[in-house]
Design a protein that fits this description.
With about 450 residues, the protein is α/β, with parallel strands linked by helices. The chain is built from 19 helices and 16 strands.
Length: about 450
């Protein structure tokens, strides 16, 4: 048994691997709550609505080392795990709304969410899904929602900061793994946001009383009584507030990349056809598109049933991609906000609560289209290091080389000295052939660019 390094906070149970299969232990202390979850009909309702992942109960006899536990379950396997600081605004918003929906349904089954962490949500088949089976507990009439503050720190505060201050502030969740402190959110929000009654009550007033009583020995669950009707009203008010939050397109450079790229219609179609032919040749089960922009080329793989991740540094591009996924019901594509030159690190206790990208999983194929010049010229990363890095990620690589004569590279060289003598087709192929076999090369029509299909040696 290999206990998961991040599974130590919840006394109700923990997750572990056995023979590479993920399981979850339910301790005897949680038995009453688990039985109520399963017997009240709550879990059935949530499953029918696809709000929570399924699981199967396993025989404890298969786990002699766990004979003193109550249950062992095998949760549904998700192909990839993302974290809130890798989501766009609408992903975080949808995750918040799902949490509130689940809380509302739970209350109607005489249960309540004991925690409301954003990490309890993952994205699967194009929409959010709840993954923490042990987050429910029996509801006692009059008790407040003890996870309310956590919900505000994990969802409400970052959503408001993105809406009213700056979209990049979602990255604060990397530093605040337990959610953004409410006092910090209040300081960063403009006055026009704080004077709105719903924001004032849920953020400013809550922050005031939290500070006032933080050093007092007060058990609010015993001294404050809130009837279920009030909890449901609070839930609806939070839902109305979060549903009302929207952001307009920032019209960023990468969010509108295809609007000003030097690809004409013929070149764009040619590139699309080449990418499609490469994907059809290798038939990957999983694919990562690094620098995917709005996901146009990632969709070629996703529409063929390949589980595909569309990585991009630009929050606006990811936002547009996510809306397109929702609009078209594409279940095999997931946008991820991600800086390839400064990737998500392993964070949390002992740096093992939330893993870096490369510790989570590896795909069969990666794509790097119109990306090499940004890494090699904008960020001064040697071609050989790029090749070595990519080779650690997957077996197959679909990559586009953009020569110095290309207008996009010329833009980059206008503001810096050309210290890249090896940035040529020959230098590129020489560097990558140290790690890859070049399977096929295709020129993009009406363009000086070339697309390569490579296989790791």
């Amino acid at each position: 048994m290999n206990k998961h390094s991040s599974s130590f906070r919840d006394p109700s149970g923990f997750i572990f691997y056995k023979d590479t299969v993920l399981y979850r232990v339910i301790t005897k202390s949680y038995a009453e709550h688990y039985d109520l979850l399963m017997q009240s009909g709550l879990f059935t309702v949530l499953r029918e609505k696809e709000y929570i992942i399924p699981h199967e109960e396993c025989s404890i006899e298969n786990f002699p080392e766990l004979s003193d536990c109550y249950k062992v379950i095998k949760p549904f396997y998700l192909p990839f795990i993302t974290y809130p600081y890798e989501w766009c605004f609408s992903q975080l918003k949808d995750a918040a709304l799902l949490t509130l929906k689940i809380q509302r349904i739970a209350l109607r089954h005489n249960m309540i969410l004991k925690d409301a962490s954003a990490y309890n949500i993952q994205f699967y088949q194009g929409k959010p899904v709840f993954i923490d089976t042990l987050s429910f507990e029996k509801y006692t009439e009059g008790n407040p929602w003890i996870a309310y503050r956590q919900f505000c720190k994990h969802f409400l505060a970052p959503l408001l900061l993105i809406k009213y201050t700056d979209i990049r502030l979602i990255s604060l969740l990397k530093n605040y793994i337990d959610g953004i402190d409410l006092d910090l959110a209040v300081k960063l929000l403009p006055l026009k946001a704080k004077i709105k009654p719903s924001i004032f009550m849920n953020l400013c007033v809550q922050n005031y009383y939290s500070k006032k009583y933080e050093d007092k020995d007060i058990n609010f669950s015993k001294t404050v009584k809130i009837p279920k009707k009030k909890l449901l009203q609070m839930n609806e008010q939070l839902q109305d507030l979060i549903s009302s939050l929207n952001i307009s397109s920032a019209n960023t450079e990468w969010g509108n990349y295809y609007a000003f790229t030097n690809y004409d219609e013929i070149a764009f179609k040619s590139k699309t056809d080449i990418v499609r032919s490469f994907i059809e040749q290798i038939k990957p089960e999983t694919l990562w598109d690094l620098g995917a922009n709005n996901g146009h080329f990632t969709r070629i793989a996703a529409e063929k049933g390949t589980n595909s991740l569309a990585f991009d540094i630009d929050f606006d591009a990811c936002e547009k991609n996510y809306h397109s996924i929702k609009q078209h019901g594409l279940k095999t594509l997931l946008p991820v906000c991600f800086d390839l030159t400064n990737p998500s690190p392993s964070i949390g206790f002992a740096n093992e609560e939330r893993f870096s990208l490369y510790k989570r999983t590896h795909p069969d194929c990666i794509m790097a289209l119109a990306l090499i010049h940004h890494l090699a010229i904008s960020n001064n990363v040697p071609l050989e290091l790029i090749a070595q890095y990519f080779s650690r990620l997957s077996t197959f690589l679909i990559i586009e080389f953009v020569p110095k004569t290309d207008s996009q590279v010329q833009k980059l060289l206008k503001t810096r000295e050309d210290i890249f003598p090896s940035y040529t087709f020959e230098g590129f192929e020489e560097a990558f052939q140290n790690f890859y076999e070049i399977v096929k090369v295709s020129s993009v029509e009406n363009s000086e660019r070339k697309l390569y299909l490579m296989k790791k040696k």
